[in-house]
Amino acid sequence: MKLNRQYFSDCRSNFNRPRNILGLSKMSRTLPATYVKGFHDEAKVRRMEYRNLGKTGLQVSKVSFGGGALCANYGFDLEEGIQTVHEALKSGINYIDTAPWYGQGRSEEVLGLALKDVPRESYYIATKVARYELDYDNMFDFSAKKTRESVEKSLKLLGLDYVDVIQIHDIEFAKDLDIVINETLPTLEQLVKEGKARFIGVSAYPVSVLKEFLTRTVGRLDTVLTYARYTLTDETLLEYLDFLKSQNLGIICAAAHALGLLTNAGPQPWHPASDEQKAIARKASEVCKERGVELGKLAMYYTMSGLPEVSTFLTGMQTRQLLRINLDANEVGLSDKEQEVLRYLKENVLTKPFDWEGNELEVYWAALKKK
Fold first, then answer.
1. Which of 10, 218, 236, 299 would you call most buried, defined as having the most Cβ atoms within 10 angstroms of its Cβ?
2. pLDDT tens per residue, range 325-340
3. What residues have CB less than 8 Å from 366, skipping those under 6 apart?
């Protein structure tokens, strides 16, 4: 993996920056278009930074809400999840992401419950198509028919007439990109014309696949979601930033915690990282626990601190405690102690970058061949 070493050096220097360097004490910031008087906590909204989502005209919060955690994949309490959504929105987060894949509709259902009494103008919401069921035979479907059915079902679960962004989920699992280009994308473009979505996006784990797809569909996409590719253990995104910027896309940088890998609690059993990689992350979490520090906060801070090109940093949050940790990483930054632990981890534990690209694909195609 070729990495920008000067950029690493610049990021390391950020560890020594004082608290509040991320700038959320700036109370003079202009209120966003999503601000609703009487609903929002104005002081908190003014502390949030808002960035342009590419060419969409939307200004989205620097920290955004990942709905992937609102299901059994991570374990959550319904009432706590709903309260977390409400507190996130009132605190200035105005971009929500979900998908049919998250809990096989459960995340969208929970968000539908949480948002039913929330002013629609106070948030932007994105969902996805193409990835659906747990069984391998029905996990992916990029067909035009399924794409339309999926959007209709998502709108029903969310209780909405439209979503702001509709994304094609994990395109690396398509048998080839032709079906995505010839069936999925044209169907989404038609749904935009019908007013059921405003903008179109795409996601994948291999950034190289995103580049190939975007090169073949120039001007037809509005956003790109890349996850776990700029973290404490993987900075592959740096290699593709110039290209993504050249496409005038809203860049969504998701999963600073690497799908729970970079937290004190550690990853879920389904996490696709190798046992060796999980052992390294576990050592990092043990160091943090011993020193009374949350690895997740360090990971969130690290990811957010060095990418001004990114529109928003998306992270899953199913409790108010996690929400506050992530907001604190953005609003306050790190204490001297936390900075010290972060330096220690980079110099002694998380010394070599790693990723799990290809692991899920290998399992998926092997499972289908057994049928």
1. 299
2. 999 999 999 999 999 9
3. none
